[in-house]
Amino acid sequence: MKSGDLDAWRQLWGWELLLAVSVAVPGVFLLLGDQPGWQKATAAACLAAFAPLYVFLGRPAVIRDDARRGAVYVALMVVLYVPVALTSQESLFTLFGLCAQCFIVLPSKWATAAVLALCVPPVARVVAVSSHPRQFFNVIVVITIAVFFSAVLGGWADRVTTESRMRSDLIEQLERSRAEVARLSAERGAQQERERLAGEIHDTLAQGFSSIIMLLQAPDPTRNVRLAVKTARENLAEARALVAALAPAPLDSSPFLESMRRITRRTGEETGVATAFATDGDARPLPPHVEVALVRALQEGLANVRKHADAREVRVTVGYGRREVTLRVADDGNGFDPGDSDGSRGVEGYGLRNMRSRVEQAGGSVGVSTAPGRGTELTVEVPT
Predict the structure, then answer these.
(1) Rounded distance, CA 208 to CA 210, Å?
(2) How high is the mean pLDDT of the chain?
(3) How far from 171 is each of 6, 174, 287, CA to CA, in Å?
(4) How far apart are CA 327 and CA 287, in angstroms?
(5) 30-88 pLDDT per residue, tens
(6) Residues 133-150: what's their mean pLDDT?
(7) Fold classification of 254-384 (topology level)
(8) CATH 3.30.565.10: which residues of the chain?
(9) How far is Cα 14 from Cα 39, in angstroms, rounded to an integer?
(10) Helices 207-217 & 288-304, crossing angle to 10 degrees?
(11) The pTM is what?
(12) How far from the centroid of its chain's Cα atoms is residue 124's Cα?
């Protein structure tokens, strides 16, 4: 049973008690009365049948909000009440429990019709067996009180049960929404992890392999093979660090600035371009995520210089501000038109998108200043 069903069941105990009393009291008077034996037996059997009828039809109809089962329950309840009402006048007391059941199980319109059907047998009996107006008046008064009582309290019980069911449905919806949010968060986390790994592979392995291919295809094989082997070793270290989910290899064993200087110097050795590395401001320790973002930005910036710039000189500067650190990678190469959308330099390709994503995750920003024939300056600023 669901929690909402359990709450509804708990709210029924008072109405169950009313039904039991309203059936038991007329039963006692019936057994003590002077009606013929077969009438007593028939009426007593009908009264006794109310118990299993409620257990197997009435209660499930209320708890599960089953209108079809509720209609069957009320119809059988009316059928069982007819012999009792035609046998004993004390059966009027049973209306208090039965009318309330109608309003609990059925919507108000149908409950009213069922109550009218329940009132017909006792009125018919008093008309058939007695012509005294006072007795008829007493029956009408009792029926009116019973109907009014059951309509008010039964309607109140119906509203309480409905609100409980709505609250249960709302809780279920919230639980489903929470499960959906958890699922989407897990999927988003997996997507972010895939993007992170793709960025790491692009910034490390892919760039390293590109350097090795370029070195092996260039003239002066002796010198280039030596650099290719050195690059391959560093690429292997990057791969091991990536597999082990460690920090990027340039940061594993070297201070931040030394790593940046070594990456710049290696680019110069591989390309033959004059490289210079400098710092501006007072150096200080940086958070690991800031160091990673700047190292990857430098690698991507130098990779673009190597692939597209045809530069003679590259200047790398790390500037320490009061609340931020800035990386500038400037070359005197070809430059390009920032409004050119054909991707001829590849700067707006996956590499820069990945760099922007990584830097923005660290709270920073990326800027590119360039023009055809005037070189390019990449600026990365990250708050510290």
Answers:
(1) 5
(2) 78
(3) 14, 5, 43
(4) 15
(5) 877 777 778 888 888 999 999 999 999 988 888 887 889 999 999 999 999 999 888 88
(6) 68
(7) Heat Shock Protein 90 (3.30.565)
(8) 254-384
(9) 31
(10) 30
(11) 0.41
(12) 60
